[in-house]
Structures are given as C-alpha cells and as structure tokens.
Amino acid sequence: MSGVNLRAVGAIYKFEMARALRTVMQSVISPVLSTSLYFVVFGAAIGQRIQHVDGVPYGAFIVPGLVMLSLLTQSVSNASFGIYFPRFAGTIYEVLSAPVSYFEIVLAYVGAAATKSIAIGLIILATASLFTPLTILHPFWMLSFLVLTAITFCLFGFIIGVWADGFEQLQVIPLLVITPLTFLGGSFYSIDMLPPVWRTISLFNPVVYLVSGFRWSFYGKADVHIGVSLAMTLAFMLVCILVIRWIFKSGYRLKA
Amino acid sequence: MPPILQISGLAKTYSSGFQALKGVDLTIEAGEIFALLGPNGAGKTTLISIVCGLVNRTGGTVTVAGHDISADYRAARALIGLVPQELATERFESVWQTVSFSRGLFGKPKNDAYLEKLLRDLSLWEKRDERIMALSGGMKRRVLIAKALAHEPRLLFLDEPTAGVDVELRRDMWRLIRELRETGVTVILTTHYIEEAEEMADRIGVITHGELILVEEKAALMAKLGRKELILQLCEPLARVPETLARHGLELRDGGNELVYVYDSARERADVAVLLTELAVAGVGIKDLRTTQSSLEDIFVTLVNGERA
C-alpha cells in the first residue's frame, strides 16, 4: 500500500455523508427555512423602504450575504461535529489506528463537511431566486468563493471540533463568534453605509472580505477590492491548515 | 522473517509526569497467543495503544513484521486489528455499515463474502441490518471484534476482551481466538483474569508498574513457579511431627489428621519418595493422599507482591 489510502478517504467521506442524509431535516430544511424567514423580514418587509444599495435592489443585495451566513455557520458546525462526535463517542480510536495519514483524515472529514455546506449554499441560492430575481455576473468566481469559503470554514470547524471538550464549547464559537461577525460583516448592508469609525473597525472583521468578494461575483460591486477578498480568504485558510498541521504533529487532544 | 512484533526499550511518560512504561522489551513470533497480564494501571493499555498508534511513545522502537510503526506506519497498521477495552461504537449505523467502513478505512477492497463469514462466525449475521445502539452490550463487543477483523489483520490486539462479558460470549471468543491462530493470526490479549491467560495463552508476560517483569511459556511458568502441596491423610492423628522428619518442613493440619508437605514440582520430585519411605520407617500410617498445584493466580500474586516488596 503506497501513496494515498483512497479507500479510507472514501470510507470516511461516505460515512459522513450518510450521517448528513440521516439528519436531512436538521441539516438542510432548517437552514432553508431560516433563510426564507430572512427574506420575508429583510427582503419583503424592510426592503420596501430601502430601495437600492449600490444600485442593486435591496432584496437581491442581501442574497450573497445570506448565503455566506449559512455557509459559514453550516461549515463550522458540520465540520466541528463531524470530528467531535467520534472523539466524544470514543470511536476515533479506529481512525487514529488506521493506515491513514493526517492529510487523508482532514481531506475526508473536511471534504464531506464542505460538500454539505456547499450543497446547502446552493439550495439557499435556489430558494432566494424564488423571492427575488438574481443576476450572477461572474459565475466562476461565485463558485470559487463558495468552495473556498466552505473549505476554509470547514477547516476552522475541524479545529473547533478537536479543541472542544463538550457540546457547549462546540456551540459557543458558531454562536458567539461566527454569527455576530457575519451580521456585522455586511451581510445586510454595505459597510460604506456605516460611520467612518465603524467602517474602519469592520475592516478587521474577516467576514467582510468574504461577503464583499462573494457579492462582487454577483453584482460586480464590492466594499473592498476583489483581490484583497481573495487574499484574505486564502490567508485564513492557510492559518487553519497550519493549526491543523500543528494539531496532528503534537497530537493535541487526539493522542496522549 | 522478522518477528510479528518487536518492542525494544519502549517508554512512555504522560504529560502529567506519570511513567506508564519504563523501557519494555518484548518479541512476539507470528502465530502465538500471548497474554499480557497485570493489575489495573500496570501499563497494558498504554503498550497496546502505542503499537496501534493511539499514543505517542517517549522512547524506544516498535516494529510490526519489520515495519517501523512511525516511519512505515501504513504497512504496520494495515497488519493490526484492535479491539479496545471500552465499548466505543457508532450508534446509528447498522452492523453491516460499520464493518464495511472498518474494512475500507484500512484500505482493503470490498469483500462481502469475507464480511459475511465474519459476521456469521460472530453470530452477528442476523443482526447485520440493525442499528448498533439497539444491540446488547455483548453484541456490541462482538461488533467491535468484527470491526477489528474486517481488514484481515495478522496481529490482533484484544484489550481486556472478556471484561463484563457473559459465559457464552467468552467461550465463543476463546474459540474464535483459537481459530484465528490456526489461520496464522497472532493474538495479544491483555487481561487481569488469570483464568483467561491460563486457558488461552501460549506465553505469558507479567507487567506491573510499567515494567515487564516476566515473559515465559505458560507451561514453563507454571512448572517453574508452581508450588505443589502433598497432603497426606493419616490413619492416626499425630500430636507433633516426628523428629526424624523435621528436615522436610512438614506441617500438621486438621487437628493432626493431615500432614502437609510443600515442594517445588520441578526440582525436588525425588524428595517425595524419600519422605514416604521415611514416614513408613517412622511408623506413620497413611490413609490417603492428594496434591494441589498453585494456579497462575497464585503465581501472579506472588510475583506482583514480590515486585512491590
């Protein structure tokens, strides 16, 4: 046996996808439902009073931000749960004792989690198109941002899943970090609409770059330059990869 | 051919400072059943966990069929199956799914015929479509064994395999282990049930406080350390041991009705004949006699106590 143990990657991937399908209500229906509610509240009710942002109708303007909101929370919670649960149940021993490399373990778990959140992102996009007419100027970049963001935040979720010592910690990061950052990251507004001080503070929020880049791929309008968005996404991904590398090298919370 | 398992100078100090293993050397040849015997906390599970890649060692080397467990971990681990001590199972998966998963995880191509035979051997075939959480504890234990064997390992670790297991499963397990050995699989089991080691093992290692204090063929171990007692039932009770027999270190029991002679079964067999002759000369009549041999448990207690003293 040399090279990559593809069968092992396939086995874990299949296992994780089966888990998602078992909980299809929770993993697919609920994000779709909550997104639809956002559309009703922000798009239909408030959107009638805010006509346009950056020349884009408000209902359409919030679509990229809403997709990002779900993508980020889903990525983090899918990936963190995926690795946390075997740790919690004790079944992780099998994966750790198998002839698989760390890269393969991460590839399988993060790959499966990213697949799920990308699927959810696309479903939400489809749902959104029922509420408001959508234009996607740069479909390639739209998909690239979708995939890159999903992978990056699944890597981040993987880290949380390894770090968490209980279900509470597992919930804390998505709840207390991801959701506020996304809400304050320009999902529902352009950061240009903020007072200068808050605009500057917003630039420290990494989600701003993701939402901005993603929105650019739809409407060609962005809060920050598309190159900066891309660079920030890749930089965050690199940080996550380095942390995961350290986790496996040191055996942190996985091996005594 | 290199030994199936070679451990040299294996040491582990946990981050708490606890020294779980203090330089263990052990060589296991293919096809044997080896029992690692020791009290709780002796280092049995740590040793297994290091070989399987669950715990990082702090010193020493381990090779599996010549493959270093770090440099060549893929080849080494593909040969190993592990049945852990804890009943750690999936919940929502079916028996069949989890066993297929294990096989894939270890990089083996699908082989439904093999898995079917495995499940049948473990009386799990009828349960193959049931969710694992619906199974009893004993059945879950069988599932763990099936998972460990799903990739046809050459070296099987059973960590406390029969802890909390009913008699039927214990018998099945022993039968399975013997069958595995016939196909050339090496089995290493840890246990603190002496009975199990005595029943199953070809060789026994005794580990305590992180040190392997003894490795021996089971038969040799029992012979070497086996204390035998010869109990003579006398025709007439004796008030005291006759002077002429003092050098044998005899003991009177049961109100002088029994005379007990303790000897080492390996070395001093000739003395029994001498004793009996001398008893006849002294005019002590013998009604009946029996011998008792120390069990592995006695040997074990002697060893571990000796280590502590």
SS-derived structural category of chain B:
alpha/beta
Q: Name the CATH architecture of the largest domain in chain B.
A: 3-Layer(aba) Sandwich
- Uncertain segments of chain A are none
Secondary structure: number of strands of chain A: 2
* Number of individual domains of chain B: 2
Overall shape of chain B: elongated
Would you tell me the structural class of the helices and strands of chain A? mainly alpha
Range of helix content of chain A: over 70%
Compute the separation of the termini of chain B in Å.
41 Å
Shape of chain A: globular
* Terminal residue distance of chain A: 27 Å
Write down the CATH topology of the largest domain in chain B.
Rossmann fold
Can you write the helix and strand succession of chain B as a string?
A: EEEHEEHEHHHEHEHEEHEEEHEH
Number of distinct helices of chain B: 10
Folded structure, characterized:
Chain B: It holds the Pfam family ABC_tran. Chain B: This is Multidrug ABC transporter ATP-binding protein. The complex is a heterodimer of chains A (256) and B (309). In chain A, a hairpin with a 2-residue loop joins strand 1 and strand 2. Chain A is globular, with a radius of gyration of 19 Å. Helices cover 77% and strands 2% of the residues of chain A. Chain A has one domain. The model of chain A has no long low-confidence stretch (mean pLDDT 89). Chain A has 256 residues and is mostly helical. Chain A has a two-stranded antiparallel sheet. In chain A, helix 3 runs parallel beside helix 6. With 309 residues, chain B is α/β, with parallel strands linked by helices. Chain B has two domains: 218 residues, 3-Layer(aba) Sandwich (Rossmann fold), CATH 3.40.50; 67 residues, Alpha-Beta Plaits (2-Layer Sandwich). In chain B, 34% of the residues lie in helices and 28% in strands. Chain B contains ten helices and 14 strands. Chain B has a six-stranded mixed beta sheet, with helices on both faces. Chain B has a four-stranded antiparallel beta sheet with strand order 2-1-4-5. In chain B, helix 3 runs parallel beside helix 5. The longest helix of chain B is centred in the middle third of the chain and has 16 residues. Chain B starts with a strand and ends with a helix. In chain B, 39% of the residues are buried. The mean pLDDT of chain B is 88. Classes of the chains: A mainly alpha (256), B alpha/beta (309). At the A-B interface, helix 1 and helix 4 of A face helix 2 and helix 3 of B.
